[in-house]
Write a structure and sequence with these properties.
161 residues; alpha+beta; Pnp Oxidase, Chain A
């Protein structure tokens, strides 16, 4: 019989083999001050930030060009997973937003295979801007995929307060 401490040691050894990179990740959307738990998601895309490029060429300095970061913009986040019992909660949240839109704060968390948070992107304000479910075909043997698209005001801690 292996003791609990022995199992923990073996688990730590296994973790060392992978380092901080896990074999399987999933995503969790955490909403602050909300009764909606949107569950776990298989994939997330669109966690991106871009600065518009501002170029300045002074008239008295030859061909010298200065490039500075300009206005910041964020892309929409698209989450996908196999449709599941959490899909009903998403539908409830979408219906509530359709009746009374209200931006929420929260985070998208990347979780490792053991359920521990690897990294978190805190969203200052987000709203749903799209939802879809893939086609249903029982002969494919594949689950119906649900996707949720969120617009947000940013995830960088760049507000001056």
């Amino acid at each position: 019989m292996v003791s609990l401490g022995g199992m923990a040691g073996k688990l730590n050894k296994g973790m060392e083999m992978f380092g901080t990179v896990s074999m399987n990740h999933h995503f969790v959307v955490r909403i602050d001050k909300s009764s909606y738990d949107l569950g776990t998601w298989q994939s997330a895309s669109g966690l991106a930030v871009k600065w518009n490029k501002c170029e300045y060429r002074p008239g008295d300095n030859g061909n010298t060009l200065y490039v500075l970061p300009g206005q910041i913009s964020y892309t929409d986040i698209r989450l996908s997973r196999a449709a599941c019992s959490d899909s009903a909660t998403v539908q409830d949240w979408l219906a509530a937003n359709a009746k009374k839109p209200a931006p929420l704060s929260g985070a998208v968390q990347l979780m490792d295979w053991l359920g521990f948070k690897v990294v978190e992107w805190t969203l200052r304000a987000f709203v749903p801007v799209g939802w879809d479910i893939g086609g249903f075909n029982a002969t494919d043997g594949k689950p119906a995929m649900e996707s949720l698209t969120l617009a947000h005001t940013g995830f960088l801690s760049d507000n001056s307060t």
